[in-house]
Amino acid sequence: MNFFVADPDWGGWIIAYFYLGGIAAGSYFLAILIEWFGSEEDRPLARIAYWIAFPLTVLCGLLLVVDLHRPERFWHMLFKSEVMEAAFADGFPFRAAGWRLAVEAPAFKYWSPMSAGSWGLTVFGACTFVSFLAAVWPQRWPGRWLQERWPHRILQTIGCAAGFFIASYTGALLSATNQPLWSATVWLAPLFLASAASTSLATLGLIAWWKNLGTPEARARLEGAEPLALGLELIVLGAFVASLGDNLLPVLQTVRGNLLIFGSLVVAVLVPLLLHARVGHRRWWGMPVAAVCALLGGLLLRYGAVTTPAELLRREPSTLVSFAPEESRQVGERGADIGNHGAVVQPRSKFTREP
Amino acid sequence: MPEAVGFYTDTTVCIGCKACQVACHQWNDLPAGRGPADDSPEGLRRPYHSYLSPSETGRIPLPLLSGNSYDNTGSFSDVNWRHVKFLERFSADPDRSQAAWLMMSDVCKHCVHAPCLEVCPTGAILRTEFDTVYIQEPACNGCRDCVGACPFGVIHMSAHKGIAQKCTFCYDRLQQGLPPACAQACPTQSIQFGPLDQLKKAARARVAQLHRQGETRAHLYGADDKILGGLNSFYLLVDKPEVYGLPSDPKVPSKSVLGSIFWSIFTGFLVALGVLFQFRQRTSGVRGQESGVRGTPNQESRARPGQEGLP
């Protein structure tokens, strides 16, 4: 792991975005799959996802804007600011010259997860908006229009892809850095996706149970899907931990690293699985408590994943300076290999002589 | 088209005078006296009042001493675009009879495959005609992706401007045919500026000279394309890169994207399979029954008290 980096200081807003964005995207993704594979009586469950996905997506956009140090420049994520300024100077949107420049303004870097994510969130927001309108006012436009086969299919296909993307790209965004932990694995994106599936199933199940939506059979099917998602999350969490290799030890020496691995394992996966297996069939509170645990665990997972590198960096200073002879002597006596842990000094250098 | 230029820093002749840091501050009008970076270990221990600006306190705060040798800036920061490192090393014997200093003036590496430039979503970070990496201040929106991507901890956020800050390679001076302020101020020519080809030739000659003199560990860091395609600011080191606070194998951020995509698609496929299994199978079962029974006794018992039998 590289301990010589600076902390990007992504905190509460980003954690909230990763969490709520995961629920919104996961719900929407699952809703479309339920519409594709499920029966007519499962539709009310899919509609819950359409109700919650759009408000959550709007909230996610606001969280991202607030997190920027220059929030008034949020639109720079989508458009090249200098080109847009030139386009406005040339009379955009009232003159053709302005339009000629404006068409060159979109800023899309497919190789940058943040750039791709900005566009992905825009597309996802548009899909959730249309689905939200159709769910709330099914007899008005666009609800009536979506009763046609092909418009519905097209929206579902684009929305499903966008939902899948939003649920997983946040992990890829973290991996595409040089931060300790994040850059050490490619399993953050699948882990966030699996967690999005389990937390969104928990959300849908909880709302369906609370509002008594859908038939008991449909609710039972939704409830039955949750252990499958939790099992998948368990497997992906295992793959994530295994992918860390030698980097696992420093991670386990941090409080947040332990929250990430053991906190998520217990709260997000094992307790809900246990509740589903042992209590869910016997007590009315089994499913809701399992769902709340899965939701809390999902939050814990994001919190741990986002904040562990900052704690690692605090423990392993990024600059290599030390004026502590006692420390250096201890290091020398132990004969420790400093590896890339820069805060300690090497006992031998080209300037020292052999005794 | 101007030719590619760079820095060659020979750490064996650095005397730690910090003239480069002072010249950088002067030319770029960077404020002094803030002490260690806010997020550095030293910065975290600073008293709160030392962060306040002169307008808030009515006086200019004095620089705080870090306690780390002669290094009182601690690391790069939004106002410290150069950082002179003092690496003090002692022998392992009880009397610490041998002591040595390594010094190094560190700066943005202006990488050929610059991670910051690669991830920047706004296009604020660009490559100039001199092959240097430059942040356009009016375009940056403070997303901090570049801060996380830089493997050298070079980029920091300006609390005052709300944008990313780092060495500009004195772009304004280059445009006028002047060398960067730090290179011009360096009294020992530890920092050399010029066309990259010439610098690399001089650096290799210096390494060969040191090897002849018995310093066989002398090597160049970033002069070839093994590190991020090459560093336009490269170094002559006499120890492992990590000793100088430089990562030995920094990565290009996009390297992990393909793996993330592959495993995400695989996981997404399994999620879809799970939904298919759960909803298709049970639906077929329910359809097959055609009995009109709405759920099993167990499923009914899972409803909240008072909700049993609700449609």
Please tell me about this protein's structure.
The complex is a heterodimer of chains A (355) and B (311). With 355 residues, chain A is an all-alpha fold. Chain A contains 12 helices and no strands. Chain A has helices spanning 12-37, 43-67, 81-89, 96-102, 113-136, 149-175, 188-211, 216-244, 248-252, 255-279, 286-315, 325-334. With 311 residues, chain B is an alpha+beta fold. Chain B has helices at residues 19-28, 41-44, 54-57, 115-119, 145-149, 171-175, 181-185, 196-212, 257-289, 297-301; strands spanning 5-10, 83-90, 99-106, 125-127, 133-135, 156-157, 164-165, 191-195, 219-221, 233-237. In chain B, the strands form 4 sheets. A 4-stranded mixed β-sheet of chain B has the order 8-1-10-9. In chain B, strands 2-3 form a two-stranded antiparallel ribbon. Chain B starts with a strand and ends in a 10-residue tail after the last helix. Chains A and B meet through helix 1, helix 5, helix 6, helix 7 and helix 8 of A and strand 2, helix 4, helix 5, strand 6 and helix 9 of B.
Top keywords for this entry?
heterodimer, A: 355 residues, mainly alpha, 12 helices, disordered C terminus, B: 311 residues, alpha+beta, 4-stranded mixed β-sheet, two-stranded antiparallel sheet, 10 strands, 30% helix, 14% strand
Task: Produce the secondary structure layout.
The complex is a heterodimer of chains A (355) and B (311).
Chain A: H1 12-37, H2 43-67, H3 81-89, H4 96-102, H5 113-136, H6 149-175, H7 188-211, H8 216-244, H9 248-252, H10 255-279, H11 286-315, H12 325-334
Helix pairs in contact in A: 1-2, 1-6, 1-7, 1-11, 2-5, 2-7, 3-4, 5-6, 6-7, 7-8, 7-11, 8-10, 10-11
Chain B: E1 5-10, H1 19-28, H2 41-44, H3 54-57, E2 83-90, E3 99-106, H4 115-119, E4 125-127, E5 133-135, H5 145-149, E6 156-157, E7 164-165, H6 171-175, H7 181-185, E8 191-195, H8 196-212, E9 219-221, E10 233-237, H9 257-289, H10 297-301
Parallel strand pairs in B: 1-10
Antiparallel strand pairs in B: 1-8, 2-3, 4-5, 6-7, 9-10
